Fold these 2 entries.
Entry 1:
Amino acid sequence: MAFKISQIIAAIGPAKFEGDPNFTVEAPASLQDAGTQNITLFSNEKYAEQAAGTKAGCLLTAEKLAHLAASFKGNKIIVPHIQEAWAKLLGLWDRELSEQPWGIDPKAVVSRTVRLGKNVSIGAMTVIEDRVVIGDGAVIYPQCFLGRGVIIGADTVIYPQVVIRERCKIGSHVIIHPGVVIGADGYGYYPANGKHVKIPQIGTVEIGDDVEIGANVTIDRATMGATRIGSGTKIDNLVQIAHNVQIGKNCLIVAQSGIAGSSVLGDGVILGGQAGVGDHIEIAAGTIVGGGAGVIGDVKEKDVLWGTPARNHRQVMRLLALYYKLPEINEAVKKLLKTANLKEPAGKH
Amino acid sequence: MAFKISQIIAAIGPAKFEGDPNFTVEAPASLQDAGTQNITLFSNEKYAEQAAGTKAGCLLTAEKLAHLAASFKGNKIIVPHIQEAWAKLLGLWDRELSEQPWGIDPKAVVSRTVRLGKNVSIGAMTVIEDRVVIGDGAVIYPQCFLGRGVIIGADTVIYPQVVIRERCKIGSHVIIHPGVVIGADGYGYYPANGKHVKIPQIGTVEIGDDVEIGANVTIDRATMGATRIGSGTKIDNLVQIAHNVQIGKNCLIVAQSGIAGSSVLGDGVILGGQAGVGDHIEIAAGTIVGGGAGVIGDVKEKDVLWGTPARNHRQVMRLLALYYKLPEINEAVKKLLKTANLKEPAGKH
Amino acid sequence: MAFKISQIIAAIGPAKFEGDPNFTVEAPASLQDAGTQNITLFSNEKYAEQAAGTKAGCLLTAEKLAHLAASFKGNKIIVPHIQEAWAKLLGLWDRELSEQPWGIDPKAVVSRTVRLGKNVSIGAMTVIEDRVVIGDGAVIYPQCFLGRGVIIGADTVIYPQVVIRERCKIGSHVIIHPGVVIGADGYGYYPANGKHVKIPQIGTVEIGDDVEIGANVTIDRATMGATRIGSGTKIDNLVQIAHNVQIGKNCLIVAQSGIAGSSVLGDGVILGGQAGVGDHIEIAAGTIVGGGAGVIGDVKEKDVLWGTPARNHRQVMRLLALYYKLPEINEAVKKLLKTANLKEPAGKH
């Protein structure tokens, strides 16, 4: 799978170029791993030294970094938007490497009442129950389960071993990675005689368009109504989203974070890895919650939060600096007590 | 799927009613979403305003909240136990929406040595190995795996893509959500020459009756003996339960929490979301561990804990208040040092 | 499944023995659970009392603990390396209990272009796509998915419902537990017009030899190049490993911990349960990160870390001791202010 530099430039958009446009590269590689058959990326000034010394056959860099790569004398592509250019370049190889649609595998189990769009692919051992509707161009890999009445939008890709329980709706251009469970019962009980009695969960899950959902994520169905994920939101692996949660558009929910029941995230919220959000909490649009933080109250205005309980990031850093100063504070207090001829107060643990 | 109010009242038990018992509702909905075709719930005084303004065709509320809903003039059901009544109401729709038992799917792979109770359902692509025993009325969805000698109790429901490895025992009336793995090897090694050598895990897992296990939960088999989950315990999504853990009856283990090897939780313990319990720890019955807390020592008496290392909740709150006061404490110490004409002690970071 | 004590001693290596070598035991059991038909383990002096009182038919203990078990008068095996001996003993039963290789199940779906070694087993409903290569003696349980071009080493065991996406490489003698997802797309986007645009993930995952991967773990494929797990590393359940992470040899990655993109762990690193490592971080070989800790910066030299942000464990304990002393420090400051006739400074929250 090789591309000429001229093909690459055609794919990535506006660029300056120094070198031989007929030079051919076989694969993208990192600055360190690249050889003459590779094209590589220099997008962070931290790696200027490696860029100067790379053995790559072609270097892609940004206009603002080009001066740092001046000593690299091979083929050089210089672009205004480096991330976009690199993503498009990777896309060239991705198209070659990707699975092509294969139609309906005879070993899939598809109910006769299912409505299929055009050019749908369904993999072996996938089970699709009554009245499911699948949009044009959708690709369902092997070993998935779609319960009764599930709706899948056009061009959505569902990787192997995904479970979507009954009546949940998935938008268009959605990507669902392996092991995801959508629409399991929410976690709801009422107490009676020292036991926990199950509250039926008759709601559903509704996923917008252009959403991506990472491997082994769980998104529970609502008690009633729907748990909702807004269009353009990207969810990383092993995230937990509880019943009746409402997530806005274009949010980033990083790996292993969890959102408890009925909480509401505005558009563009970012949750760092392993962050937690309590139940019935509202988080203002555009808020960033740092990794591992625990949000236990409403965030009424856009903010950057960290720690548990989560607070404004600058306050957290200021308090942390004083926390690290505790040995000195303690020494000073001891000295002052001595000077003032006072006893230390009795312990109160 | 519509019910007359008289049918609903018959299902939920003792209630006062104002309005037309022949009025028909199509579905439950929230105060905000409800229209005349819906029945809605008013169970929290925080939402009194929405209750007054709801467009629902019927309102269900509690005796002690009824005065706050006085301005709602439509059909009104007033009950003593609101959560129980609402759960029973949802159950009416749940029964209609639920999958009906379907018998043994011809595309299931069931060993001839399996012993099946009456009215068992087994879904397509499920694999059931030698000498498995399945109780009356149990429902096994598609694509599950039950290893040799697994025992499943009566009326237990196992959703798609659950793995239960060999010789594990599941009680009656248990619900296991998709993606759960029961009986994978515990995480045990001994060091030898700088490497980690596997300790065989020959034990099993034993799950009591009326247990519910959330999506993508992992419960490891014991090194020897059994990892045990007591009857009535409810486990949320993505929880990790290590080998030889013993969990009591009627516990609540909220999403993404984890319990390390050989720890013992008494009856009725509650672990909040993302909480962690170290290995070989005992937690007294009735203890509540807050979300994100890390328990690293025994909890000998029933307590409410939070933070890492987890401590009594009130102590944690008191210390946190002083932590937030560190800027003032630091200022005061500086002023005192100045007044006393003392230097600040050298840093000791 | 019973063994004579003489057979057990033959299996576990050098040992002293007191009693009847023809005595037969049926199963290993804990000190408390054991009866005359059981062999039990006494490996921790904490349990000396239980050892003295156990009803086991045979006791295995270490040379250095033997004096504490002097009052136990039954069959007694005394060994120099207790963990190794016990692991070998459990292995006797494990071999009896384990599934035997079964060949290629006719209900597996195996592409004609797959290359199979000798004595390979493949379970029902497993789907193996084009050009997969599987080494001698490998065992693939039912309902797995191996994408195009995946390579599996000799004697590797893959439990049910594992997904390995295209082109990933798995070493020899690897154990992969149920529900694991290897090679899902890394979590990478670039911002454009307030949206997140997917960066294609064209790399792979490479797993060394003798690696063990716990249930429902997720290991993402690299953007380019490979996410790598070194030989001998053992990963517990529900761990998240992001794209381009490089993990050294013989590491221990305990349950629910997570490692963000491009981070590098040296050989022998230990991550405790629920620990988190930020992106682009390097952790020196031999470093131990405590449970729940959050590593947000490079660890340049071998260290023992705890807390968030993670710091040297001793420093953390010292600061924590002062934190618990805050009530006294606060009291002392108040008293000093009073003595010095100064006002408390105004709040600065």
Entry 2:
Amino acid sequence: MSLLCPDAFLSPLAIDEAVTRALDEDLGRAGDVTSTATIPEGTRGRAVLAARKAGMIAGLPLAAAAFRKLDPAVEITGHQRDGAAVQSKTVLLTVAGDARALLAAERVALNFVGNLSGIATATAEFVRLVGHTRARVCCTRKTTPGLRAVQKYAVRCGGGFNHRFGLDDAILIKDNHIAVAGGVRAVLERAKAVAGLEVGLADAVLLDNMSPVTMKKAVEMVAGRLVIEASGGITHESAAAIAESGVDYLSSGAITHSSPNLDVGLDIEI
Amino acid sequence: MSLLCPDAFLSPLAIDEAVTRALDEDLGRAGDVTSTATIPEGTRGRAVLAARKAGMIAGLPLAAAAFRKLDPAVEITGHQRDGAAVQSKTVLLTVAGDARALLAAERVALNFVGNLSGIATATAEFVRLVGHTRARVCCTRKTTPGLRAVQKYAVRCGGGFNHRFGLDDAILIKDNHIAVAGGVRAVLERAKAVAGLEVGLADAVLLDNMSPVTMKKAVEMVAGRLVIEASGGITHESAAAIAESGVDYLSSGAITHSSPNLDVGLDIEI
Amino acid sequence: MSLLCPDAFLSPLAIDEAVTRALDEDLGRAGDVTSTATIPEGTRGRAVLAARKAGMIAGLPLAAAAFRKLDPAVEITGHQRDGAAVQSKTVLLTVAGDARALLAAERVALNFVGNLSGIATATAEFVRLVGHTRARVCCTRKTTPGLRAVQKYAVRCGGGFNHRFGLDDAILIKDNHIAVAGGVRAVLERAKAVAGLEVGLADAVLLDNMSPVTMKKAVEMVAGRLVIEASGGITHESAAAIAESGVDYLSSGAITHSSPNLDVGLDIEI
Amino acid sequence: MSLLCPDAFLSPLAIDEAVTRALDEDLGRAGDVTSTATIPEGTRGRAVLAARKAGMIAGLPLAAAAFRKLDPAVEITGHQRDGAAVQSKTVLLTVAGDARALLAAERVALNFVGNLSGIATATAEFVRLVGHTRARVCCTRKTTPGLRAVQKYAVRCGGGFNHRFGLDDAILIKDNHIAVAGGVRAVLERAKAVAGLEVGLADAVLLDNMSPVTMKKAVEMVAGRLVIEASGGITHESAAAIAESGVDYLSSGAITHSSPNLDVGLDIEI
Amino acid sequence: MSLLCPDAFLSPLAIDEAVTRALDEDLGRAGDVTSTATIPEGTRGRAVLAARKAGMIAGLPLAAAAFRKLDPAVEITGHQRDGAAVQSKTVLLTVAGDARALLAAERVALNFVGNLSGIATATAEFVRLVGHTRARVCCTRKTTPGLRAVQKYAVRCGGGFNHRFGLDDAILIKDNHIAVAGGVRAVLERAKAVAGLEVGLADAVLLDNMSPVTMKKAVEMVAGRLVIEASGGITHESAAAIAESGVDYLSSGAITHSSPNLDVGLDIEI
Amino acid sequence: MSLLCPDAFLSPLAIDEAVTRALDEDLGRAGDVTSTATIPEGTRGRAVLAARKAGMIAGLPLAAAAFRKLDPAVEITGHQRDGAAVQSKTVLLTVAGDARALLAAERVALNFVGNLSGIATATAEFVRLVGHTRARVCCTRKTTPGLRAVQKYAVRCGGGFNHRFGLDDAILIKDNHIAVAGGVRAVLERAKAVAGLEVGLADAVLLDNMSPVTMKKAVEMVAGRLVIEASGGITHESAAAIAESGVDYLSSGAITHSSPNLDVGLDIEI
């Protein structure tokens, strides 16, 4: 069984690169000195990676890659896969292999699953809160530096959608562009000349930091001609009211930059 | 004035590497298509990077590096430096240079300052809560993958201390080592044989998930012969009681993996 | 004056990475042994980079970066910029600096300007041929491996537009997806379920290897509800007829993978 | 059966590096969103990579490496190998494995085989045209930036020879060195002093942009004491006449920088 | 059997990185042209890697990794492992696989085993010379640039210990710090303020370039309260006398930067 | 004044890459903790890098690059340059700049100058010993892994010459090729067929581990038709006798893999 969330995108090269960098960072110049000092060479071990809180899982393929990188012959059994909603104490993976390798990869595996499941869990809660509306939950470019691809994937695991992956993905005009360019008219004229962008052809409009009441008016004005995205400090408390205004998307920076880790742990089976 | 926190360590190569990777991730294959489409070439801009909430600042050298990477001639004025406690609306940096470059580097700069100041702020709160005791606050290896060096630095900016930077830093024996090796005795005998480690020569002991009462007993038993570190789910609520047990260090994984970002923003000055 | 084409996007990090790799490849382990052997240290030189055939220019910022990488103090004067249509013998850049560095960077600079101007020139010819229609010229993912970002930029310099930069840019369903998935219906049902993609919401349709007559019928059927892109072996000979069918885009793989280099040269001024 | 051309050199690390970079460029941050959206997980597929025009093949080991990188268990059957002259519709490789992986690697595989077979085909045509003479065909440093090693290999697949791989390979004195150094005498004196290079010990002389008549005179003057290489705008039309002048090598920049891709395609077998 | 020295630490990622870099350096752009030219494709070979002088072995896992990188199916039999003391002509490894791959990896494999066994051998000789004392032998940061992790590992293979792996490992105050900071008092006051470092809490003291007599006095003064390390031009001749002064550690830069390679060779078995 | 040896080749990119890697290795995750802890921010320092033994200098450009990498504004005065023969206590460089940066770069700078000057010094001694003959001294591929380009450069600084930089540089047939291929005849026939190599066209012959007497006979047999290189365990003691046999080159692996470092140091000027 694949460990990847069935409906989410993640490049295998991105997994390999993120895991190698993280292991490199943790192993440093000398590697896992404690395991070498305390565990006889060749010792086999068996461990379970389990959730210690309820939540939505993301990051299992990265955990598996971390174990496999240090023990290519490790046996990994997936009991859950990314995108699963689990209870506390649910076993996610069983890993069996070289005991030193398991312990050397443990922290990297847990750091990925903890961070990404935290994001998936926060996303899923937003999705639940706006489930009675047509609004979709999406994330922003406010990700932890260096982890954009995997964090965007975690949002998908939680049932959310992805906004721009980077500055090169789409033209999105904000206050600062208008301020620098000298006004809305100047910006739009230039965008039309340079990129063929016409207001009538815009795909979407972003409503930033508006009240639900104002948003509702905006939804009525647009009348379906544009996709509308609401943004700006949306919390679990305010999400439902904003979604009920009729917007198409709720975007939250906090789900990627401020979600607490989901508590997960690795236990050696004796 | 240097933007680095006076008493904290951060390698200039680590700054360069982290910022380059983050810019690369955000600029993608085509770069900032919006700025190119909306801002005439050669336009100059001036912007202020300011805190939007009160907190402890960390990450300004990374923000500066991001702007400088895209406009080597940018002028940067530091109004604060890392390790400063600021109020909401405090201006941190002023940057003046090529407007397209400023906007292209904006998100990366804010993502670093937001993440690292969030960590520094959470650390500083722990430090405040245990200020009446001898306990020091420190972090763990539970960092966001790929950001260990800069997040450890952020903990220093907040007044905390750093535990092991990686698996190669020190021998630290935990439950899983004991489980794999077949018991405490086996672990200690092997560690003595291999690494010359003797219990009497251990530098420190980690008390994991104990109550303040139990910790106090442990402190009394150790009687100053070892450094004692308390660990395991310590929160802002429980910190003071634990510190009062007499331990030397309180270590928290949450300050690096689960601190919410500090809200910071960049505004173009007109 | 910037050397970049005013209306085209290119990340400064992409320039740096492409130029460093190319210099590394050419300098090898020992560097430019001929210049060291024949030119006294410290010799200054002045050279002109000029077109030896008429064409549309692209790649000057990469040429400049190559010279600057080997002589940070080189003086570069841009006489033309990317996106300029020039006659044979037009001087593009003047470079003055350390003579060894100029000669060591020469081939890399010329290889970039030759390849990218070749692409821009071929693109511009397509643009001219369909200038009496509403059709726009665009490129594909059939680029030379490792050069996608800069070759896509060259297409922009020639007046063309860019299709997907990579597999992650947009959903584009082709014959092979349909063959693997077991038919059109299966593909569309799955795409709807997974990505929320509905036929009525598709942005564009690709007409592959159709005759102008068939394309005209397709244009009439679609009646403006979708963007139509014609593709498949379009040549300078067939471009006008296809464009006259009313399609919105003509896409050509050949402009990036099979355009001959524009002849450019570097001459030392004595 | 190895897919490499029997008599040509290519480092396995060079293959791995070129393919990884190209896949990375195509998969971007999110990977192949279309395959994920349209093809159920775990679907198996079988595809044939075939020539769509007659030509000389090069690049199959890179194509195989691309498929293997995304599906380590893919089964690859080589029906031809690099250096084979094939007719249109000749099947080159059969690949069977995870369908999503096959489609995600398709474009990278085709871009390599198309580019390198185009070079091999153009080389082979030059070789054929001068087959009645003693002249050998070779390439230059005018390669596509970033692809020198693999393009030089493609020239070998086409029956050609390789000139310098980089600036560090041999001393080759050209006009610009003479211009900078202040004349032929100065260049030779310095080269003798620095590198022990004496005219009488030179291995080869390059005749650049001379007519066949002039070249013949040069060949007679040299009388076998030096290897003679003819260079400068040699085309399929002029090759035979130049080769008949008696030179040892014909070198062409165009075979690496301006050969059109050979048309190759991948078809899913149903 | 693992080839790693049982009690020494080395990260598997460090092995992979060092070996890939070394192969890349040796294979260059075109690979092993001699093996391609002289050995028919598919030829199998069998070779023995043996010591040609007596010594202490280190580096076998790197040799094995080099062969495996060029022939993933190579069969490797370890007759010795790192940390073994061997006589001249002792067989260390047998490798059987693709003959071209064996010869292409030969030099890299030998360069690693030669360099690291040279270090291990020199270390072991120091260890032997001070074996009648309590002193331990350790190395410094005076390693060959780029090889610190593997050279420190080689010291462990020889029975030595490792000092700081890098500048970030521990605070070590030397003459130059004192000179810059304006005296011992200034340095200590600042170190106390910044890093909480108190003289009474220092772990160790370094006695640099002192005579055995002076060292003995220092040992008596310290009376066990600090670990004492002797350093500065210690040779095989002077080691015993210094060790007998009672110091805890002898540190030598020469064992990593100036040990001659151990002579090892690879012979094809016919 | 350039610090590079006037007649030796070294790519600026190779310098940058080697120095960055070495600094990265020494600074680790946290940087120079001692300088941060003991030296107030902004302190300026001035230091001299000097030889502590007589020898031939190599590596100053790498030392300068190390200081500049950590303090871009450092002022560097070259008192000597690579290729200079100096007495003990000769000042090589003066550096003035940020004191923390000077101390953080010190070890990397010294490690490069020590290693490379050691090689240059050993080479120069060989050159002196054979100065009365026509023999030239050259190095092999037996370099320290990862440092080939800079160590080959050091040999040039010492007055030596460079053999192959890597396996891709030239065809060199050795015992193992003959053993694998099944004899001299088989090797030569294949080499002729594949690479057009004929014995009569070979450039050079390698005499491995022969006595001076045997070498002299070989020199007489070859009678100037081939370049002759003597190789195999040549020492300072045996060099003159071997050179007097009339060979063209003496090649030594030991000068790159076993030369002791030249003793160099950095002293803060007060």
